Amino acid sequence: MKTGLTQRHLLGIRGLSAEEITHFLDTAESFREISGREIKKVPALRGRTVINLFFEPSTRTRTSFEIAGKRLSADVVNISASASSVTKGETLLDTARNLEAMAPDLIVIRHPSAGAPHQLARVCRAAIVNAGDGAHEHPTQALLDALTIRQRKGKLEGLRVAILGDLLHSRVARSNAHLLSKLGAHVALAGPGTLAPPEFATLVEGASLRVERRVEDAIEGADVVMVLRIQRERQDKAFLPSLREYAVHYGLNLKRLELAAPDAIVMHPGPMNRGIEIASDVADGARSLILDQVANGLAVRMAVLYLLGGGAGTTNTSSPPPSAKSEPEPLTEAVTVGGAQTDTSNAT
Ligand code: CP
Q1: How confident is the model at residue 347, as a pLDDT?
Q2: Of 76, 293, 303, 324, which cross-links 69 as Cys (Cβ 3.0–4.6 Å)?
Q3: What Å distances lie between residue 107 and 68, 69, 76, 133, 180, CA to CA?
Q4: Sequence-distant (≥ 6) Cβ neighbours of residue 316 within 8 angstroms
């Protein structure tokens, strides 16, 4: 049986075809009902080992990868940077090589540096899954966002999607820009000039991607309004005059949401700053699909582990380590958009 994928790792959306993205979404759709069962477990990955290696904080991604692995009957091990020998000076690659010696089938990694998963993919036999690398990509977030949109709207092609906020530091924005473009959506991005550089419009060649100065211009007529987290930990770098001003000029409130299509949906990857990038009555309102996103995150991560971990019939552990040329280098777009040097920690 084949996986329907051309790559044995999931390092980013940029390297996937529209068909591969759709295959992940269709597989995730088929896994959704498992979480509604009384016994929420299937034997698909019995005997396989998944290591979750998180060098940054996470609630949604880490928990859902762990639950996903367990619902597929894999053996799941969680390692956080603070509890690992990284605190004693061990390098990322030495950590990876030592984990490899224990023959895991999949390593899920979140790391503050763009390109860290690609480094692991060069030295590991295990399939590598990028759970967020610096300001570069967060592919499973974009997949779960797409699944959520597709469930509500029936398609992505032709939809108008507004993405608002801190594009500069956002791996979610980058992965979504790639995915939405590949599936034919029209994307309007907006935020303060310091955080939404015009160069972002050129991120995906040939895409329907534009950057607006005013959030109102991006929201106007949108079918989907996606709000990004303001990364408060960076505000000492004077990207914004103040969080209060940000809320006034760029935050999504009910008045601004009225500019969107009458059946527009609201999304946020989390964690949210209520009252800053999104008003509570919007986040908790009838159009909000924020918790649907979280539920779909579990199904997407089950699909990713299943397809890359051998559930569909492949055996990754028997494959040789991949060539260093098998994935595009991620660093260029991560560090040059907007001309800012991206300090990439906590970049969701
Ligand atoms: N959206 C997201 O990645 O959330 P976490 O940082 O909680 O995993």
Answers
A1: 52
A2: 76
A3: 13, 11, 10, 14, 26
A4: 8, 105, 106, 125, 126, 127, 308, 309, 310
Residue 341 pLDDT class (50, 70, 90 cuts): very low
Nearest CA to ligand 1 atom 1: 269
Distance 182 CA to ligand 1 centre (A): 23
pLDDT digits (tens, 9 = 90+) for 75-115: 999 999 888 898 999 999 999 999 999 999 999 999 999 99
Alpha-carbon distance 135 to 114, whole Å?
6
Percent of the chain with pLDDT over 90: 80
Centroid of ligand 1 to alpha carbon of 233 (angstroms):
15
Is the bond preceding residue 117 a cis peptide, omega within 30 degrees?
A: no
Best of 52, 53, 55, 60 for a ligand 1 pocket test (most atoms within 8 Å of beta carbon): 60
If we measure between CA atoms, which residue out of 168, 330, 162, 137 comes closest to residue 234? 168
**Does residue 58 line the site of ligand 1, with CB under 6 A?**
yes
CB atoms within 10 A of CB 273: 18
Q: From the CA of 61, how far away is ligand 1's center (Å)?
A: 5
In terms of pTM, does the model score above 0.85?
yes
